[in-house]
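Database export, one record per block. Field names are fixed; values are copied verbatim from the stored entry.
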Amino acid sequence: MTRDIALLLATLGSVALLGGALAFQYLGGLAPCEMCIWQRWPHGVAIAAGVLALGGARGRFLPLAGGLAALTTAGIGLYHTGVERGWWEGPDSCTGGGDLNTLSTDQLMSRIMDAPVVLCDVVPWELFGLSMASYNAILSLILAGFWTVAWKKS
């Protein structure tokens, strides 16, 4: 596989994953949680790195940046999967976790009013037992492989 083919596959992969997430949100009406949004940003970085590299920028930095972005979103996706499955606790800001018994009435009311509409520990969609966060993690690891090929051939 050539550098440019690896770059193209890696970039288009992030375009597809980010586009799919946006399609689920805007066409399917599936609102994202906070951690879902976190997973989108690294795809944007990977897409930018790929466009610049495919546009003629040379060197090893852009494939490295794209690969790190793919690994970052894969890591967030894995963490999110664990939160969804109850393997570990997620951030209090999007799971409603923490010891609610220690809060005053005013603190509890503030927390309720500030709570996100979509919680990170709820799986709103799955296919074959895997959530979107799980698919993002798996597919982003594959994309990191393409970035690695492009980096090694740079």
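Remark 1: The CA atoms of residues 12 and 47 lie 8 Å apart.
Remark 2: The chain has six helices and two strands.
End of record.
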